[in-house]
Amino acid sequence: MLSPFLFEGVRPIWGFEMVIQTRRVSSFLLVSAAAAAALMGMMSCGGEGPTSDEMPMAEDVPVMLLESSTDPNAIRPLTIHVPDEVLADLQARLSRTRLPDQIPGTGWDYGTDRAYLEELLSYWQDEFDWRAQERTLNEFDHFRTMVDGIDVHFIHQRSPVEDATPLLLTHGWPGSFTEFTQIIGPLTDPESHGGDPGDAFHLVIPSIPGFGLSDKPTERGYSPERMADVLAGLMDRLGYETYGAQGGDWGAIISRVLAFKYSDRLIGLHSNFVTGGVPSDMENPEEGVPAEELALREERLRIRSTGRGYSEIQGTKPQTVGVGLNDSPAGLAAWIVEKFHGWSDHGGDIERSFTKDELLTNVTLYWVTGTATSSARIYYESRQARNSVGYVDVPTAGAIFPEEISFTPRKWAEANYNIVRWTRMPEGGHFAALEQPDLLIDDIRAFFRELDQ
Fold it and tell me: How is the chain split into domains, by residue range?
């Protein structure tokens, strides 16, 4: 009879010595090990192994499935509830995690630090309470509706102030709508959070196609340009003729497209990720740019040059990397959390910027919805699309956080946007709504207040 434990020991295998550490393993692993041993035995005796037709096929990863509607115009309420079997599968996979070695003393230099990942995975398996996170997320008003053939999930949190300003908040990668949970209350109901009711917003917070609780595209072409069309259609479906837009990462890029294509609908664009390269129509683009801004841009370029491998992979072969991300929760956590570490302002301790619960709520959402691959495809689709975005004449605010992954000098930004507000923040990084919610809230309020004057 096979023991439920593998005992510490040294055993020669094909000329190598392998140390097997004591740990509890599942019967699945033991059966797999026995099958592998039997197969090796047949091979060593000259026998033939099972054919491909006889080999069991791996089952699909259990994921949360959401029902579609026969009425394409229906706006259907949604309550988040991940099936028990999906969470059980997650736990089983975490229990079978096999981490790689790491050179001692290298920390995060080569990628995700193994010591921190082990700590995070242990917390995920033993302490993290997804049901508690579900209850928190379900405090907001969730819906789904069909736009451009995609069932789009969104939070629609209306303010108690009837004439509040409609505002579209859009996330990017590797984030999700969960980034905004800390700012929803203060923006929709400022009076209850010590603010002015005149600064109230009706919020629409979508999961962009391929992410979170929205459908995965089943055809090519869901680029930022097409996603902007989807979000414009969503706002139209909700009855908002004019509104503001705010975003970071891909959310900022999509919002920029939205402001360019639908300038008659947008009253203002607030971005914490102002993109724009060297203006081609400037004879000397560095003339008039403060030396401090040029130095900051070069510093950001240097840092980014050692951390953009993910973009090359997802921009060229997202399906390949998606196999591992969709099969291993540990791999998915390492892939995502490395970016939260690398792109935030934490001084060496990631949990100065994010709690484990915040990190794992986001990672778990990717896992239970099976969207690691579909979300990565936005990089590929963006590269295939023709960039048709020109100057954005919608009034634009830039909220510039010091540890953002890139920096555009204001003069260059003004060549691409109608910049009316430019705020250099004292601290914070790429995930502004999670890292520095108060700074972001204050700047959003100030910008749209100024537009009303």
Answer: 5-44, 130-452
